[in-house]
Amino acid sequence: MQDEALTRAMQCLTSEERQRYASFTRAERRCQYLIGRVLLRHAVSRVTGIHPKLVATVDRRGSGPGLTLPDGVLHPGISISHSRNWIACITGTGISLGLDIEVTDESRDVTALADAAFSGDEAAWIHGQEAHARVSAFYRFWTVKEALIKLWSNSEKRQPLPLLVDDNGGPHSSGAGWHSLTLAYRNLAIAVCSGMALPEVVLVDATSLLA
Ligand SMILES: CC(C)(COP(=O)(O)OP(=O)(O)OC[C@H]1O[C@@H](n2cnc3c(N)ncnc32)[C@H](O)[C@@H]1OP(=O)(O)O)[C@@H](O)C(=O)NCCC(=O)NCCS
């Protein structure tokens, strides 16, 4: 990020957000936090119609950020994720959301990771994929699980993660009270989870916003 863009982004933050920004020791983490807050302001502005300057966030321990909006503005669902130098956020009206992104790393031993992190049936599905499809299969399950954790935390639900394979051993993308949608963009695996099926997800690359 250029110095000028960094200064402009910093000016958007509230004093509480600046304190949180300054509390991170790693420069990469500071940058993820800052860009996440800028993106969120623009995304919330897009779905509510209010100016980005009228949007502020409050950090909530053990959960995603909350929003402070002018009186009378309906609070949209929001979620943020980062992976290496990618930062993403999602907003949607009248719905709770969970988002996860991961940079796809083809060099990872995804079968060993699946054995360690997933149930036996889920890992078996990953093992059963053709070699070229195994990495994306792994990231599909991983991102959906992380997005579900965020969805349930954002909607203050506590329940165990569901199995992502059905009785026939095949993958499924929805269950009681949850829906997931997975996308790939550049080198990213993306998962969006929501309490009800989403009519559409519009993906916007906002790189130019931060130039
Ligand atoms: C909560 C958790 C899902 C966050 O995921 P992560 O990969 O560490 O971080 P991401 O970059 O994707 O997301 C970070 C953002 O999510 C949000 N967030 C953090 N904790 C959250 C929570 N409990 N609920 C909702 N959102 C949360 C924040 O906005 C944060 O960014 P910010 O601090 O800059 O605002 C993760 O820390 C966790 O607890 N995972 C459990 C491990 C696990 O069982 N994984 C399942 C795979 S088998």
TrEMBL record:
Pfam families: AASDHPPT_N, ACPS
Domain 4'-phosphopantetheinyl transferase: 96-156
UniProt entry tagged with the keyword Transcription regulation: no
Residues annotated as transmembrane: none
UniProt keyword list: Transferase
4'-phosphopantetheinyl transferase N-terminal domain span: 4-68
Alphabetical list of InterPro entries matching this protein: 4-PPantetheinyl_Trfase_dom, 4-PPantetheinyl_Trfase_dom_sf, AASDHPPT_N, P-Pant_transferase_sf
Keyword match Transferase: yes
GO biological process: lysine biosynthetic process via aminoadipic acid
Signal peptide feature range: none
Source domain of life: Bacteria
SUPFAM superfamilies referenced in this protein's UniProt entry, alphabetically: 4'-phosphopantetheinyl transferase (SSF56214)
Protein name: 4'-phosphopantetheinyl transferase superfamily protein
Classification lineage: Bacteria, Pseudomonadati, Pseudomonadota, Betaproteobacteria, Burkholderiales
